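Per your request, structure below.
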């Protein structure tokens, strides 16, 4: 009888945990790329990543004048884009990442540089603009500068997230990062918020992901959150979810 009681308790505990995970299982959303007005004159090209799939690369008008496209006979998408940039030959092609992720392979001055993302834009000034979701915690937007040593990321104040989120546990928003300053708001589990920005800072050699969040009323404050994986969202920000290996 005692063993039966223990098994019954264990069964109900498992069901409760599964129900809780199902309740907070985040919906993974992939943003459709919308070309910003400042890039409206850029021409799109598609890089082949198999017989039926491709990845978009947008090149500025000047780069299109210097462009060579390599593709197999009767193939719709390009295998490689080659052009002159800052006086040097640059080529862009697709390369599959370790877990099948989308990677752009940029070759420049005998260097091979992989950029993890789904959409790439390149300007004649040597800037590479990257957007992607796979292998990130949300849709990321990055900017790189072509230098003599390769591609160097242009540091931003923070990364844009701009995503609605459900709290998977109670959360406290603070005036400053890392739980410092005055308390802006105390929010209950299941509350809807909007995640605005993500800042990764390192204190005492420990990285801490800080997110700037807006309440439904419009109050803004910082909160620390973990990143989820697969069907388990982050805590307390359920929408922060790593997609990939």
């Amino acid at each position: 009888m005692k063993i039966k009681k223990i098994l019954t308790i264990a069964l109900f505990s498992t069901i409760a945990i599964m129900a809780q995970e199902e309740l907070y299982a985040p919906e993974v959303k992939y943003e459709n790329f919308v070309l910003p007005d400042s890039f409206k004159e850029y021409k799109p090209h598609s890089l082949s990543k198999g017989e039926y799939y491709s990845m978009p690369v947008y090149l500025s008008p000047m780069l299109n004048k210097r462009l060579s496209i390599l593709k197999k006979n009767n193939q719709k998408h390009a295998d490689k884009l080659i052009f002159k940039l800052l006086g040097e030959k640059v080529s862009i092609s697709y390369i599959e990442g370790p877990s099948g992720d989308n990677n752009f392979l940029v070759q420049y001055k005998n260097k091979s540089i992989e950029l993890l993302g789904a959409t790439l834009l390149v300007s004649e000034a040597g800037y590479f603009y990257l957007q992607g979701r796979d292998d990130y915690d949300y849709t990321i937007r990055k900017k790189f500068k072509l230098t003599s040593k390769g591609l160097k990321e242009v540091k931003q104040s923070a990364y844009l997230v701009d995503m609605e989120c459900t709290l998977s546990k109670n959360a406290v928003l603070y005036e400053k990062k890392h739980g410092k300053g005055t308390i802006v708001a105390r929010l209950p589990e299941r509350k809807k918020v909007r995640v605005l920005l993500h800042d990764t800072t390192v204190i005492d050699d420990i990285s801490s992901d800080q997110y700037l969040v807006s309440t439904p009323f419009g109050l803004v404050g910082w909160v620390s959150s973990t990143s989820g994986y697969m069907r388990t969202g982050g805590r307390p920000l359920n929408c922060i979810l790593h997609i990939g290996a």
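Confidence is low (pLDDT under 50) at residues 14-23.

Regards,
D.
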